[in-house]
Automatic annotation (TrEMBL):
GO terms for molecular function: ATP binding; magnesium ion binding; succinate-CoA ligase (ADP-forming) activity; succinate-CoA ligase (GDP-forming) activity. The keyword Methyltransferase does not apply. The lineage of its organism: Bacteria, Bacillati, Actinomycetota, Actinomycetes, Kitasatosporales. Belongs to the succinate/malate CoA ligase beta subunit family. It comes from Streptomyces sparsogenes DSM 40356. This is Succinate--CoA ligase [ADP-forming] subunit beta. The gene is sucC.
Amino acid sequence: MDLFEHQARQLFEHYGVLVPRAEVADSAPEARAAAERLGGRVVVKAQVRAGGRGKAGGVRLAADPVAAYLTARQILGMDIKGHTVHRVMVAEPVEIEREFYLGYALDRAAGRFLAIASAEGGMEIEEVAARRPEAVARIPVDPDEGVTDAKAAEIAAAGGLPAEAAPTVRRLWRVLTEQDALLVEVNPLVRTRDGAIVALDGKVTLDDNARFRRPRAYAADTADDPREAEAAAKGLNYVKLDGHVGVIGNGAGLVMSTLDVVASRGARPADFLDIGGGASAEVMAGGLALVLGDPDVRSVLVNVFGGITACDAVAEGIVRALDTVTLTKPLVVRLDGNSAARGRAILAARAHRLVHQADTMDGAAARAAHLAA
């Protein structure tokens, strides 16, 4: 699970990493009140799980509480890479002397973590990494040894960070390991004009396999889109995208392949929804209702290969959904594998005028793309 910036900030503060004073606001009046409490001049930052907020206009400086109010009104409701902004963080600005990059990421192939550091942090860090990879240091970290004082000094030196950043390097390692995170990133990590090392932004990804150990973090989670929260409550793997073809499948690999095929037919997927390998009719019905409730969706493609999930159970779920949800958008269904013939017969017997069946994934994607257009 990706944390919002304000959630990552709270973790950093708990572990002794310096962060600017900040408050979260759900409305423009709340942003103005927060700015008044923080001294007037503030930075208003969109809270979405997406990078590139600054370039998209989701991070802006406000000179006073009235400007914070107006800025929050402009940012709230924005679409940033398919994510709608529902809240902002209002933060105290700092006087920056220099920007750096610092992060930890899991290297699955090597079975260890990588510390990643650079003396050139900020919005252009991806371009720096692409143009001049030597400017970004990647230091392996043995999980059994962890980040000692000596290792922290090594990471800071390798990345061109000031020596006084070493304690922050160690503290962020504690965030990673003690919070069961797969990724901890600060961009930018800055040295202020008075010499303090401050995390101006933060990204933390928690390992869902450790969810049982972090019930409070998951209970407090607020999704970018209400459908994401609804899906999480139902145990569905759902991600809102920015297209018009709703996509449902069983298994992440199949769903990702379906997204690619839809895109190859000139359409853009509206979501990623994996109902899982052993989905029941009830799960299928819940997933279909979720996708149909998205106003951006113009057609829906259900692509299922029957294995543990039998195709007749999927078909029963679709029929059940049709009995409870008024279908106003075309639905294209491709069933193959276990009990596919019985599943197709169930849908044929229902004979809904907006339900279309296809024999192949390519054919189903082409039909869904055409209907969405």
